[in-house]
């Protein structure tokens, strides 16, 4: 049975909800005044580690830092 519910505009635009919410968060951060803007921009950074697995065992993990707005600017999903 088909639903007559409206499709969310972010879905109609071909985005995931995560991408949409990150774009909205970025806009809010950029609208803040100092010193709140600087504090919000520092929370935007994400740290994670990546390990390559060979023969069933992880190699030494590599720690990386990613800034969420850079992902959005390239149009990639998180």
**Main beta sheet strand tally, sense and closure:** 2 strands, antiparallel
Beta-strand percentage? Answer: 15-25%
Low-confidence segments: 69-78
Strand order in the largest sheet:
1-4
> Given the C-alpha coordinates, what overall shape results?
flat
Estimate the mean pLDDT confidence: 75
| Helix/strand order | HHHEEEEH
Radius of gyration: 18 Å
Distance between the termini: 32 Å
In helices, the fraction of residues equals: 40-55%
Structural class: alpha+beta
Count the beta strands.
4
Descriptive tags:
alpha+beta; disordered C terminus; 78 residues; two-stranded antiparallel ribbon
Could you walk me through the main structural features you see in this protein, from its secondary elements to its overall organization?
Strands 1-4 form a two-stranded antiparallel ribbon. It is flat and about 45 Å long. The chain has four helices and four strands, in the order H-H-H-E-E-E-E-H. 42% of the residues lie in helices and 21% in strands. By secondary structure, the protein is α+β, with helices and mostly antiparallel strands. It has helices at 9-12, 17-31, 36-42, 68-74, and strands at residues 45-50, 53-54, 57-58, 62-67.
């Amino acid at each position: 049975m088909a639903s007559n519910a409206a499709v969310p505009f972010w879905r109609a635009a071909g985005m995931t909800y995560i991408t949409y919410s990150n774009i909205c968060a970025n806009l809010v951060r950029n609208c803040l005044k100092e010193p709140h803007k600087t504090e919000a921009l520092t929370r935007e950074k994400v740290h994670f580690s990546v390990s390559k697995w060979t023969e069933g065992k992880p190699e030494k993990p590599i720690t990386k830092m990613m800034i969420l707005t850079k992902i959005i600017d390239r149009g990639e999903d998180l």
